[in-house]
Please model this.
Amino acid sequence: MKDKQVPMKQKASSLMGRGSRHRDRQLQPWWNSAQLGLLLLPMSPLLGGVGLLVAMVGTWKQRYRDIHRRWVNRGFAILAVWLAIATGFSADPSVALLGLFNFLPFFAFFAAFSLLIQTPAQMRRIAWIAVATSVPVVIIGLGQLFWGWSGPVKLWPILYWQLEATGTPPGRMASVFAYANVLASYFLITFILGLGLWFETARGWRKLTQRPKQTEKVRDPRDPRVVKSIDVNATGQEGKVSEQLIFLSVALLGNGYALLLTNSRNGWAIAAIAVLAFALYHGWRLLVAGFLAVLSMILGSAFAPEPLQSWLRAIVPSYFWMRLSDELFPERHVATLRTTQWQFAWDMTRDRPLTGWGLRTFTDLYEAQTQVWMGHPHNLFLMLAAETGIPATLLLSGLVGWVLAKAVVLLWIWRDNTPENHRDIPGDFHEITDDKLIFFTYLVAFGACILFHLLDVTLFDSRVNILGWLLLAAICGVTYRQPSFKSLGRAFGYE
Model:
């Protein structure tokens, strides 16, 4: 009987705990440093960045040959050289040189972390850290809007939060970030990761609670005359998984409510698309139909013709349709409209299609033309085309698209129950995990980042930029190592 109980106790490890160990012992110090950096990142970009930098440099030092061997990293190296050369043709080379730091370090970050992250268990670990560290951000944001919390909070250079009372801009939650839209981009990532973890944990909880009881009679070692009946299928794990499910439920509600309070139409729409993607993944057709019906009502209340619009506005809260239709801000200057910025960025691209005007030059050129300061044109691809040229934009898009295309192929052919997937999971713990779901979650989260950057550009915040590249690196790393994909690896030119 003791032989049966030992592995059961091993399985009492939490879902969150898996992935703390690296499959390669030589990379364990850098994986530990990466986890510590992620824990600190939302509150202190400096301290979090130091931990991630140590992990990046250590991985590069130990695995330079492996990193150099991957053609996708060579592609990013070529892109880095191209951007550096194009800086010399910039309208303002000094400004463009500073703009390189929003890209070049992250190419190196991607190369290192796509090798450091190799298993779905590591993906799961990162997701847990991201969701857990989002909770303090939610609390600070609620304090900012409802309890009068204000800053600035300074512990230079470790900590700096603007934390303006009532939000930035007023009435929109910004928490420890500089602007509401940046916070919305952050919460979009943590909300989707939390959603994937919630579905996986709920599935595990159902499996544990629905296991049939299998009793055996054993004698009490303290009194051999006493015979007890025990359930040999009991793992002692149900309580821990229940606690995790409760935590994830609270964190998801908090992230969702905070995302709502950022008043970001972009964030709302993409979060809705993400929920729809999970519903489709699980085959919930009725839920999808109901969700689309509610979404149609909300959109109709903002944009439908009369009299349908009036009928829908009587049902849908005004907070939604006024924000979607821009009636909350009726007197906006034409230069603040996205369409105006997109047209200006496209005109810049047409004037210099090969090398662009140089990174970070849009702001000065746009202000000179319109007398309105605008940090970016609210579309990443138009910004890149205008500032770096069409070839660089196509190369970056092609590299990212190739990684995602192979990831989608992997998702299609995924074999979840292979020993390779669960080599770092003791006993049969993998029975309550879902590696394919975690991988799908990362694809949805990164897809959300891309969609968000079609209408805004938030990569200038290092935390959001790091999380975006981390998602892509994890997708690439797991795709490269996944046994299901090895049979197609050469055909897709992965090495």
